[in-house]
Amino acid sequence: MIGNLARKRTNLAALAVLAALIGAMLVALPPARAVGLGDCETSGTTLMGLDDSCSFTENTGEVAGGEDVGDPVSSNPAVASVTSGEITAESYGTATITQDAVVDNPDTENINEALAAISLTVQVRKIEVTKIEFGSFDDNDTASDRSDDTFTADTDNVFAAGANVAVRVTVSYSQADQPRVTVSVPTTGLSLLAISPSGVRGTSQSLVSDATGDPVRDPGMATVKVQGAHTLLTDGAPAGEYTVTATAANGAVISNKATAKLTIGDAGDTVGSATLALGLSEGYGSPDVSTHTAETGTDSQTGSINLEVNVLNGIGNPVNASDVDEIRIVAPFGDVMYSSTGSASDPFAVAMSNSIPGIALAKGRVIVQIASSNDVARTIDVRAIALGSRSGVADTDTVTLTFTGDANSMTVDDATKTLRSVNVERDSSNNLVNDTIMLLVSATDKGGNTANPPSSLSFTISDPDGRTVSSNVIRASQANRGTDGKWRITVTNVSGDSASTALKTGEYTLKATSGSISDSASFTVAGGAMNVSVSASDAAPTAYGTITATASVTDEDGAVAADGTAVQFSSSDDKVLKEVGDTSAKNTKDGSVSQQFAVVGAGTALIIANVGNVSDVAVIESTAGGTAAADSEAMMAGTECLTNLAAFTSWQCEEGVNVSEIFAELSGRGATAIHLWNTTRWVRYAVVDGVEIVGSNDFLIKQGDTLYISN
């Protein structure tokens, strides 16, 4: 009896201790407190949390008219109040604090007291969990330094049952207090391991954790990554997908729930496959893809070429860095460097013995940079071998790189566009913009390999008369490589800003020279439009549809007008032809431009093309929807004798006609029947599908008869 009682007391004590330990993980949240943020932002928005405050210097003095300057005013006092140069956050939202400008008082001795108007914007925001990540970190013995662990995010969030998973939570907040983060997991299979006291499991864990770096308030809310504080245990968890939730709090202010999913199953922790491909020569670290320049596989003997190694795990997802021991680069006579991201903040490091540590992988990828040893022109065959830390070896295909010598020959292609004789384009400030064209340039070395063009070219430009043109008139640039990897020389009209300084029109020659190598190309300078001709794809359409009008524009010498010459199309009769699509002026390319028209009816219409004061027309005879109403046909049909072609009408001609003789013409205009008033009743004539209907009467129409045409 006593023994049983002792055992019960022992069990109760153990339960009490366990309850106390779990309760320690869910300590009461501290109350929110006001935080002074210092000076308010003057050139942007001050981000604040509830009860935060910032300060500014109020204007003092007189406004225009002599009155004292008024107090600062908040556009939304419910969001932000202002008192004695201090703005306080009252509720969530945005507010602007303004105060009038102060003018200079001329009666004050040589002191300029003028002050600009004050306008300050504040935004009061709620704490927010922006990301939940799963991965691993280097374990430390104590909780105090867990926030400094090196966290490695998993690439696919798939883990084998029994793995300990690190959880990192990113929080944006606006108060200076560091946030309290609460992580919760499903009760089936998963649990969280408490840091203090050690060894206690639960499905929810709440604690204040140090930031991994100093919070940065500009340009957004202060952001911290809470890591090393939450360890997720998966032993015994059934295979499947699990949802983990996290919230963050500043005192009584709690964020909305954020969620992330992880999968328990085959984690594919072996190295499954690897690929090697050309990377970017420029643009790593930039989200703007327009700045990305792809490698071509060729560079000068003193240059370097970037490659990308991608390693996948056994289930086809990017491998985790911890699952790769090393990546060996096979590149005979090549110098090897590597970077995880290729950005300026992640400089390339030398791959000792051509070996790259697996930890360099970022989401399964590492960037490898190859240069030719001793700057010798050669080709280098490169491949990569990924070695798994647990198991698996993957070998890539070979990529051949070419490091070329100095250019031994050069080719400059003729221009494909024309250069305007007079600059006409203007920028947003209405300043004239010099017209330009580009000439492709390529080069090869002594071995016939593609080489970079010489970096220092001299140019001679000759006009149509063979006279040399000054670089103050037409200027040629050094060859530059575009984002497509091709090299181009830019030719610019630098003097033709008016008719008096217009370039002579005709064919010019550009000669590019570097030492003993040179090549020549031609380009055309085109003047303003002097002639325009317009044609149509179908001048006599018989059915509804579209036709295409094309205008060809030439200058006074008969050469195609400069690209970008504006042509305005129009139709003389919208009931016959109507422009479709974009009806604004179109710019020529290679001297021509087109516009589509819809054929909407029968008749004659003109397609008109205008270029400044020059124009041309194309005549369109349409019979779509019926026969064009030629006068002779109208006379034969007799419809000219009717006072109206719909509803009530009267026959005005002396000569009579049977109603069937005019019905075909009227039915083509939408008539369904013709009625005659014979002084006692209406007599009807109607035809359906070419057959006169029952009760119809092909009556004779005489002068003065009253008719009714049904539509």
Structure described in brief:
By secondary structure, this protein is mainly β.
Give me the Rg, rounded: 41 Å
Tell me, rounded to a whole number, the average pLDDT.
83
Going by helix content, strand content and strand pairing, the class is mainly beta
CA-CA gap between termini? 110 Å
Q: How would you describe this structure to a colleague?
A:
The protein has 711 residues and is mostly beta strands. 6% of the residues lie in helices and 44% in strands. The protein has 3 helices and 59 strands. The strands form 14 sheets. Strands 10-9-12-17-14-15 form a 6-stranded antiparallel sheet, with no helix packed on it. Strands 11, 13, 16, 18, 19 and 20 form a 6-stranded mixed sheet that branches. Strand 14 and strand 15 form a beta hairpin. The radius of gyration is 41 Å and the shape is extended. The protein starts with a helix and ends with a strand. The N terminus is likely disordered.
